[in-house]
Queue: 3 jobs
Job 1
Amino acid sequence: METKLKELKMQLLEIDDLESAAALLSWDQNTYMPPGGAPARGRQMATLQRLAHEKSTDPALGKLLDDLQPYAESLPPDSNDACLIRVARRDYERAVRVPPSFVAQFSEHTSASFQVWKAARPENDFSQVQPYLEKTVDLSRQLADFFPGYEHIADPLIDFADYGMKASTIRAIFADLREQLVPLVQAITDQPPADDSCLRQTFPAADQLAFGLQVIHRFGYDLTRGRQDQAPHPFTTEFSVGDVRITTRVRENNLGDALFSTMHEAGHAMYEQGVNPELDGTPLAQGTSSGVHESQSRLWENLVGRSRGFWRFFYPQLQDQFPDQLKHVDLDTFYRAINKVERSLIRTDADEVTYNLHVLLRFDLELRLLEGQLAVRDLPEVWRERFQADLGIAPPDDQDGVLQDVHWYAGTVGGMFQGYTLGNILSAQFFDAALHTHPEIPAEIEQGQFDTLHGWMRENIYRHGRKYTASELIERVTGGPLDIEPYVRYLQEKYGELYHL
Amino acid sequence: METKLKELKMQLLEIDDLESAAALLSWDQNTYMPPGGAPARGRQMATLQRLAHEKSTDPALGKLLDDLQPYAESLPPDSNDACLIRVARRDYERAVRVPPSFVAQFSEHTSASFQVWKAARPENDFSQVQPYLEKTVDLSRQLADFFPGYEHIADPLIDFADYGMKASTIRAIFADLREQLVPLVQAITDQPPADDSCLRQTFPAADQLAFGLQVIHRFGYDLTRGRQDQAPHPFTTEFSVGDVRITTRVRENNLGDALFSTMHEAGHAMYEQGVNPELDGTPLAQGTSSGVHESQSRLWENLVGRSRGFWRFFYPQLQDQFPDQLKHVDLDTFYRAINKVERSLIRTDADEVTYNLHVLLRFDLELRLLEGQLAVRDLPEVWRERFQADLGIAPPDDQDGVLQDVHWYAGTVGGMFQGYTLGNILSAQFFDAALHTHPEIPAEIEQGQFDTLHGWMRENIYRHGRKYTASELIERVTGGPLDIEPYVRYLQEKYGELYHL
C-alpha cells in the first residue's frame, strides 16, 4: 500500500505540475507578455490543460484509487492520506463522468460565445449573444445530466465551485437574506448620500501600489512567497504553497479601486499561502470552495479593511502618503466615503450592502433558466424588472444590465455566482468565531496588528486546504451550519450607525 | 500523406508547447519568482522536460517519420516540409539513441556536480569538484559512444550545439586563429593601456536600461514581440516567434556591462524574431547552431556596437543621458575605453581580442580530456601553463582559473565552448558579405540606421531558422566555407588603428 500511495502521489503531482505551469502561463499573459505572444500562448495553455485532463482521467489513476480504498478506510478519516484519497477520488469520478468530446465541444462553444460577447456588450446588443446563451443553457443542462440523481439540475454545477451545497438550501438562505437587505438598502438610500469626492482626486499609481502593499504585508501576506504585479483585472494565482501571487489594477482617479482590491486579493492569497506545506502539490492544497475562498477576500477587504478601527491606525499614514489630496479630509469623512451605499448598476463596483442583491438576482435567474422557467429571450426584461424591485432602479440598457458580467458568456449558466454571497455570509460568521475566542482582535486592528486574526484563520481554516468540505469546515469552526445572522447583524450595526437609522 | 504530415506537425507542436512552457517557467524563475517558489519550480520544469522528452522519443513519432520519408524525398529539398521532416528525423534519431536511464543518470550527476561547484569556487578548492569532473568526463565519453562511427570522440557532443562541425576542422581553424591572435595581443599589450575610467563612474540603473532599450529598438528588436527584464545573468529566451525576450544585468559602477550585453542579447533575439512565422511551433523555428547564433550576438555587440561609426551617432545621446559623468569625456576617449584590450583572467569580462584565447584554451583542454591525453587532476596546472603561454599571465588561483565557468560543472565536457569563437569568426564573415552587397551600411550606421543591415540578416540568415545546417548556410551566404580571414582582418585593422601598430 505504501508503494501504491506513493504512486498515487506521484501521479497527482504530475497533474499538479501541469496545472501550475498552465497557471503561470496565464499569469504571464495577464502581466508581462508582449502582444505578439498571444496566439501561441493560447495554444500552449490549452495543450497543458489537455494533458492535465488526460492524466486526471487516466484509468490507471482510477485503478490506483480503487486499490487504495480499503487502506483509506483503515486510516483516521481526518488524516492527510485519508483526505487525499477521498478528495482525489471525488475529483477523478467527477472528471471521468464528462466525455472528452463534450469537454471539447463545451470549450469550443464558450470560446466562441466569449468572442461574441466581447463585441456585443459595447454595442449594447443582446440579440447577438442570445443564440449563444441559449446553447450555453442547453449545454449546462447536458453537463448537469452527466451527474444523475441530483435534487435540482443546478446542483452538479454548484458542486464544481461549492461542493456539497444545494440549490434548495442556497435559495432559502438567499431569500432570507434578500428579505433583510431590500429594506436596509431602502432605509439607507432614503438618507442623504455620503460624499465620496475625496476618493476621486488624482492619486499617483506608484504611491497607491506602495501603500496597498504595505497594508497587506502587515496583514501577513508573505512577500517571500508571493508578489504583486499590475494586470487589467485583479486576480490571485497559485503555483505552489511557496508562490502565491496577486495582481492589482490601479485607477489614478479612484483611490478605493486598487486599495480594496489589493486587500481582497491578499485575503485569497493568504488562504492559499496558509495551507499546510505537507499538502503542497496535491489536490488538497487549495481553498475548499469558492464560498470559503471568498469569505477570506471579503473578510480582509470589508470586515477589516473598511472598518473604522482599521483606519484609526492607517488613515494618518494614508494622509502622509497623499498629503495634498487628504490633509484636509478628516477620518470620519473618509470612513463614510469608503462605505458609501448607493443604488448602482454594476456588481463589481457595488458597495457592501447592495452587492449581494446583484448576486442574488443572478443566482435566481440562473436557476430559472436551467429549470426552463425563463427563456433566454426574456432574460433582459426580467433582469430589469427584478433589478427595479430589488435595487429601486432599472438599467437603462443591456450593456450595464444583463450583458455586464462575463460569467454566463464564458462558462456555464449555473454555479457561477453563489460563491460571492456565500463568502460574504461566511466572512461575518468566521470573524464572529474568531472574536469569540479572541475578543482582543478589534483592539489589535486599531493598533495595526493582525497576527491574532491571521493566526486564527490559518489555524482554523487555511491550513486544512481541501481536507474538509465547506459544510464540514463551517461546522468545525462555528459549531453550526451556514447562518446569515452574523452577517445581517454586522451590516445593520455598521450601516445603522453610519446612516443614523 | 497530407494527413500524416498534419499528424507529424501536431505531435511536434505538442512537444514545442511543453518546451516553451518549460522555458517560461525558467524565465520567471530568473526574473520575478519569489524565493519561496524555488522548490516546486525545479520540479515543475523537470516534469515538463520529461514529458517533452517522452514525446520526442515516442516510437509513434519515429513511425510517422518513416512513413513520411518517401514523401519528403519527393519534395524540393529546400521546401519547408522537406526540411521539417529532415530536421525532425535528425532530432528524433539523436534523442532515441540515448537510453532514458542514461539521461536520468546524467541529469542527476550534473545537478549534484553543479551544487558542489557552487560551493567549491568561492572556496577556491578544485579538489571538491575533481571527482565530479572525472565522472563528467566519463559520462561525456559514454554519451558520445551512443553515436558510434565518429571521427573524434568530441564530434557527437559538438553536434548537439554545432551540428556537422568536426573537432578536426575546428581544431585546425582555431590553431590558425591562435597563431594570429597571440602576437596581436602581445603587440597591443606592449603599448600603453587605454584609460577606461570614464566607464567606471556611477550610472543609475534605470537610465542605463532606458538607453540600452532605445539602442536595440533602433537595431530592429521588435518590442511588440519581446521585452527586456532584469536578471542575475543576461540571457535570451523564446516562447514563440511572437515572444522572444531578453534579460539584462545592470552594474551601476560599470557602464559597459549592461550596454553591451543588451546589444549582445538583442542580436540573439533578433535572430529568433526573424524566423519565418510559417515555421513557428516546429523544430525549424530556432537558430541553426550555437556558432551562427553567437555570430549575431557578437555582430550587433561588437562589429556594430563597439564601432566608431555607431558612436558618432549615439555618443552625443549617451552624453545627454549621463551629462555629469560624460560631458567632459570626448568621443575618442570613450571609443578607446570600450575597446580596451588587456590580459585578464575572466572570459566573460574579456575584450574582443583576448576573448577567443580564453575559448581556444577551453576547447583544446576539452578535447584532451576526452581523448584521455589529460587527466582531470592535472587540469588546473595545465590551465595555468596554457594561460601563461597564450595570455602572458597566470591565474593566481583556481577560482579565477579552471573553476570560473559553470559549463563543465553543469553539462558535458566537450561541445561546450567552440560556438563562442565560431560565432566571432562568422560575425565578420557575415558582416563582410552584407557589406559586399550593401556598401552603404557603414554610412547608415553612422546615421543610426540599421534597416539595411538588419534586413540583410533577416533575409539571408534569420528567416531560414534551422532549414539549413550551419555549413550549408555559410556556403549560401558567403559563397565559401568558414574562414578566419575577415575576422582577423577586422581585428588587425580596428586594433592596429586604435593602438598605432
Job 2
Amino acid sequence: MDPGAFVSGPVALRDAALFTDLYEITMAASYVREGMTGAATFSLFVRRLPLGRSFLVAAGLEDVLAFLREFRFSAAALDYLRSLGCFDPPFLAYLRDVRFTGDVRAVPEGTVVFAEEPLLEVTAPIAEAQLVETAVLNLCHFQTVVASKAVRSVLAARGRPVVEFGLRRAPGLDAGMKAARCAFLAGATTSSNVLAGLTYGIPPTGTMAHSYVSAFPHEIESFRAFGRRFGSGTILLIDTYDTIAGARRAAEVAAEMAARGERLAGVRLDSGDIPALSKEVRRIFDTAGLRDVKIFVSGGLDEDQIDRLLEQGAPIDAFGVGTRMDVSADAPYLDMAYKLVKYAGRHVLKTSEGKTTWTGEKQVYRFRGPGHRFAYDLVALHDEPVADAAAEPLLRPVMRSGRVLEPPPPLAAVRERCATQVAALPEEVRRLKGAAAYPVRFSDRLGALQRAVEEDVRRNA
Amino acid sequence: MDPGAFVSGPVALRDAALFTDLYEITMAASYVREGMTGAATFSLFVRRLPLGRSFLVAAGLEDVLAFLREFRFSAAALDYLRSLGCFDPPFLAYLRDVRFTGDVRAVPEGTVVFAEEPLLEVTAPIAEAQLVETAVLNLCHFQTVVASKAVRSVLAARGRPVVEFGLRRAPGLDAGMKAARCAFLAGATTSSNVLAGLTYGIPPTGTMAHSYVSAFPHEIESFRAFGRRFGSGTILLIDTYDTIAGARRAAEVAAEMAARGERLAGVRLDSGDIPALSKEVRRIFDTAGLRDVKIFVSGGLDEDQIDRLLEQGAPIDAFGVGTRMDVSADAPYLDMAYKLVKYAGRHVLKTSEGKTTWTGEKQVYRFRGPGHRFAYDLVALHDEPVADAAAEPLLRPVMRSGRVLEPPPPLAAVRERCATQVAALPEEVRRLKGAAAYPVRFSDRLGALQRAVEEDVRRNA
C-alpha cells in the first residue's frame, strides 16, 4: 500500500483531474469530436437558501484557484481512462495536453451572498470548463456550507469565544481541515485541530477528556495532575461523575494552585442541565473568591442552543462547538449548481421544471443604505452600466488565461472581511430566527434577455 | 504554495499524527509526566441510533489500521509542537519515538451493528491510545455514516441499480472518495467518481449534463452528437427543456441509431413529476418499439423518494443518488464515541448525566434464529464464556502489538459481507419505515460489573 494512502490518501495531486464525474469526461470527448472549441461561461450559485437561513458566507475560492492552476491529467490518469475502453487516441492526446486556460471572476472568500447570486463565473473553452465542474463545486460547496453555519454560532455567542472542535466527527479528513479553516474564517476564535494550527495558523486550544479524568482513581487526582503539568493554562472538565462535586474539587485544586502562584483558567461543562449547573458552578467559584475562573460549555451545541443558554442567563464565558457545526447539521448541503449560461456567443439556460436558471454572464452590485448597511443587491449583466457608482461589484477577476492574478489573501484578512460583511447586514436579515429575506433584484436588461432566451428555447429547442 | 496543496492538501502523511485535537497531546503529556504507562482499553461505539434508523453498517476499519501502522510524529510536527511553548523536551522526545504498539479488535467492515455495540476496541499504553483517538473516530465515523445511509437507497430500489454520483456536493475531497467507496460497499452498483474507479476499482458510469444539451442550438443535435460518439453506451438527459418533447426527440435519435445497428441505452429524467413523466416516457418508447431503452431517474433522491416512486408504479430501471446520500442528509452524524473502559487493570466508566458509558472490554455475540436470520445480540465481557457455541463473536483481533494481522479484504468481499448481513436481518428490523428495534442484550456479568463500578465511582471518585 502507498505509505501516503491513509491521509493524503487516494486524492493525490498527480491524479486530481480524475476527481470528477465520468460524464464530464464523456461530454468533453464529444465536444472535442464535434470541434466545439468555443468559449463557455458557467455560473456557480445557490438556487435556494436552506430553511431558516437568510444569508451565506462564500468560501473555497483559494482551493479552486489552486486546483485550476495545477489542472492536468497524469500519465496514470490517462492510462486509467484508456483502460476504460471508451475514449479514442485523439481525445486521450487532447487530455494529455489540456490545461485550464480560462478566466475566473469570483466574490472574495468571506463575502456574504444570497440565493441566485453567482459566487463564481468560469469562462473557458467548453471542454475545459466542463472538465473542472465537479472539483470546483466540491471545493466551494462544503466550505460555503461550513462558513455559513459557523457564523451563526459566532453570532449566537454575542462576542464570547467560540472554539471549533468537531474534528473527530467531521465528515472525512479533508472536511476536518476545512471545517477548522471555515469556522475560523467565520469568526471562531480557535480550533482543537492541531494540524489546522500548523497548516492555517489557527491557534490550537483544548481542555481534557473524560478518559483523562477516569484514568485516575479519584477525580481530584486528575485535576491535580493536569494542574501540575499545565499550570495557569489549565481548564478542568468537571462533569465526568457529578458536576457540582467536580466544581468543588476544581475549586479546591484552584486554591492549591493559587498557593503556588498559579491560576486555574477555567472549567468545562459537557452534559446535564447547563443553565442550572453553570449558575451553581459560578456561585461555587465566586464564593471561593475565584471570580476569574472561566466557565466553558460544550456538548452537542449549535447556534440555537447557544442562544437559548444565553437567553436563560447561563453565566458562560466560552463555547466549544463541534459536530453540529462541522456537518452543518440542520442544512448539511446547499442547492449549489454550476450552470452553462453562454456558449460561443449564444445565451443559454435550462427550463427544467422547478429548476429554470438565469442566462448570461453576470455581475452582482451591492447597494448600501444608512449607516453603510447593505440595502439591496442587484444582479445584472456583467457588462451592463449601473447608474450608482457607489454600488460595489462583488465579482472580481481572479484568474485570466489560466493565471492566478494575485496571491490569495491571508486567512486573517478573509476572517476580517467576513466580520465586516456580517456586521453590515441589516439587523433583520442577520438575526438567527425569523430573519427577513434580503432584497435581491434582477436588472431589467437581465430580465429582458432571460425572457428572450426562454422564448427562443420554447420555439426552437 | 505546496503543489500538493489542493488535494493531498494539508493532510499529508508526514504530519498525520497532528490530525488530532490538542487535548489528546496535552493529556498524553500529563500521562508521561505522571509515569502513567499502563494499558488502557478504549471502546468505539454509537450511543444511540439516529431517529428513523434501525441498524448501522460498520465501515472505516481499513483506514484505521493503515493510520495506526504508520502513526508517528514527523520532524515538522515536532517543530510545530515545540513552537507552541507548552511541551517540555522530555515529552517531545517521547513523541519523537512514539509508535502505536497496541492491539485492536474490531468488527469487519460491512458488518451490521447496533447502538451500544463496540465497533472497535483499542488496547495500548494509555498515551498511545489517547493520541490516536481523533483520527480513529474521524475515519470510522464518516464511513459508517455513509454506508449506513447508502444501504437504505439500495434496499428501497428493490434490486434496481443505484449509482452514487454525489461527488460535487460531498462534504470535501476525502468525503467524495469515501462516499463512493461506502456506497459501493453498501450495494450501489457504480459511481460517477472516476478517481474512485482508479483507486477502488468501482466501475465509473455517467450520462450527460444539462450544460451539454444547452451547448447545442437544438436539443436533438446534442442527442445525435452524443450518440455519434458513444453509440450503444448512450444515455440521453431529456429534461433540459420539456421532458416529453425530449423523450420524442430521444426516440427519434434511437431510431436513427438503430438504422446504423446501434441501440440507445437509456434516458435520464432529473426533474418534474417523475411518476407521471416516467410513465409517459415509457409509453413513448414502447410505442416506438424501443422497449429496452432504460429509464434512469435522478434529482435530489434518497431512500424515501425511491420508495415512493416505486410505490407509485413509476417504471424506473435505475436510480442516481447523490448529495442526500453523500451527506446522509437526514442523519449527517452519528453519536459515536471512543471511551475509556479500563486502565491499568481497573474498570472505569463515566456517569455524566445522560451519557453514562458501559465499562469493560467487550465482545458482541450474534445469535441466529430460524432461516439463519439474526435473532438477537448479546454484549458481554470479552473473556466471558458464552453458552451457545453457535453464537458469532463479532469483534476479531485485527492488530497485535502495532502489527496488522492480515491484509484488508478486497472491497468486493466487504460488499458481499454487507449484502449477506443485511439479508440476514429480520424483515421488521430491515424495513425502511417503522422498523422494529433489534434486540441487543447485555450479559449478567457485564451488568454486575457495571453496577459495581458505578457504585465504586459514587463512593470514591
Job 3
Amino acid sequence: MSDNYQYELEFSVRDYECDLQGIVNNGVYLNYFEHARHTFLNSKNIDFAGLHAEGIDLVVSRIEIDYKFSLTSGDIFVVRLNIQKEGLLRLVFEEDIYKLPENKLVARAKVIGVGLKRGRPMRLDEIAGFKDLV
Amino acid sequence: MSDNYQYELEFSVRDYECDLQGIVNNGVYLNYFEHARHTFLNSKNIDFAGLHAEGIDLVVSRIEIDYKFSLTSGDIFVVRLNIQKEGLLRLVFEEDIYKLPENKLVARAKVIGVGLKRGRPMRLDEIAGFKDLV
Amino acid sequence: MSDNYQYELEFSVRDYECDLQGIVNNGVYLNYFEHARHTFLNSKNIDFAGLHAEGIDLVVSRIEIDYKFSLTSGDIFVVRLNIQKEGLLRLVFEEDIYKLPENKLVARAKVIGVGLKRGRPMRLDEIAGFKDLV
Amino acid sequence: MSDNYQYELEFSVRDYECDLQGIVNNGVYLNYFEHARHTFLNSKNIDFAGLHAEGIDLVVSRIEIDYKFSLTSGDIFVVRLNIQKEGLLRLVFEEDIYKLPENKLVARAKVIGVGLKRGRPMRLDEIAGFKDLV
C-alpha cells in the first residue's frame, strides 16, 4: 500500500458491472467506494449494519468524483482511502482508484458522510469506536 | 392487459441495465420480476416494506426462468403475472415478460415466495390482506 | 414541469434499490440521473447505444451530487434537468431530483460528459443532432 | 475446495447488495453465479468479453435457483461449480453457494448457457478452448 493512504482494498471488475459500452458503468464506482469505506470502518470495529440496528445511520451527504480512465472486463484495481473529521458532524473520505499492476489513477472521489440518530443529525463522537477512527 | 393475467406493469429498459453484450443482464430480470410482484402486492394493500417493519419478511425460496429472447436498449415491455396459493405456506407467482408493441414473449418465470415471522416460517393467511390476494 | 428545466422524467422507487438502511442506496441515484439523461438525449434523436455502435461513446468525466433527503420504498419522484455546452468538448448536465407530490428537493447533481471517438476526445458538434441539443 | 466441484470462488457480501430486509437481494445471487462462471471460463482461457468482440455471445437460456438460507452483511461465502455439456449446443452449470466457515449450503442453481454467433445458435465446440472445458 502506498504510504499516503490509511487503507486499501483490492477488487476485480465483474462482467455484470460493465455496461453496453463495455466499460464499468459510472454508478458502479459508488459501489466500489462504499464497499471500501465499509470494510475500512469494519477494520476499526465500526459496523454499518450493526449501527443501523441500533438506530444510527451513516449516510452520504455529498460525493464528487473525477473519472480519469475507464475500468473494463478483467481489470484488477485497488480503492485507497484517507479519512478526516470536519467539525463534529462530518467525515470526509478521500478515495482513489488505481488500476493494477501499473498503478494508473482511474478515479478520485471525495465522499462526505454524516451520522443520523433516528433520522436526526448526531455528533460523530457519540459512535463507539469513532475516536480511534480519525 | 391479456385476459389471462391478474396484473401487469409496463417498463422500459434502462441503458445501465444492459451489460457488455449490449443486452439486459440475466440478473436484472429478477429486478423486473420483483418490482412487478411488489407493485401488485401494493395494489392489494400488502406493503413489502411495511411488513418488514412489523417483523414479517416475504422471501423468495425458488425461481425458475426461461429466457427466450433478449431485451436491449430502448425496448418497452410488460411483466404480466398470476398468483396462486400452494398450501398454507407458499405463494406461486407466474410472471411473463412480453416485449411491446409486438407482444413477443421474452421470458417466463415461476417464483415461489414464503413468509417469515422473525425468521421462522409462517402461515400466509396471518398476513393482513392476504385473503383478498389469491 | 417547472419552467426552469428543459426536461423531466418521473420514476418510482423500486424496493430492490433500497439498501439495508431502508433507503435508496447512494449509487442508485447515478442510475436515475443516467436514465434521465439518456431519455432526454433520445428525445433529441441522440441514441447512446446507437452512437456506441458507430464507435462514439458519451462518457461521464465528473459528477458532483448533494444528497439532501433520502428516497425510500414507495416514493414517487422526478428527475429534472438542464444541459449546457462548455467549450467544444464538454456537456454539463444539471440534474435535480424532487419527491412528489410535495416537490421536495431530494438531490442535486452536476454531471459533466465528454465524447470519445474510438477512445479519443472528440468535438461534440461532430455528433449528428448535437446542434439542436443545447 | 470440495472434491466434488471443478472450481470455486470466494466472495464477501457487500452492504449495497443487501436490500431493505437486511439480506442479499434475490437478484444479486445471479451476479455471484455469473461472476463465478466467468472467472471459471477465464481460468480455461475462454474470455466472455473477448468472445463478444468476435461476435460470439454466451447467453443464459434457463436458470433454476433454490434459496435455502439468506446471506447478510459481513458474510463470507464461496460459489462452487461443475459444468457439463448437454448435446452440441448447451452447457449446464451446477452452482452452489456455501457460507463460510461453517460450509452451510445457502443456494443451489442450475444455469443453462448457449452460444450465439451473430445472434444465431452455434455449436459450442466451434469456440476455441471449449474442448478443454468439459
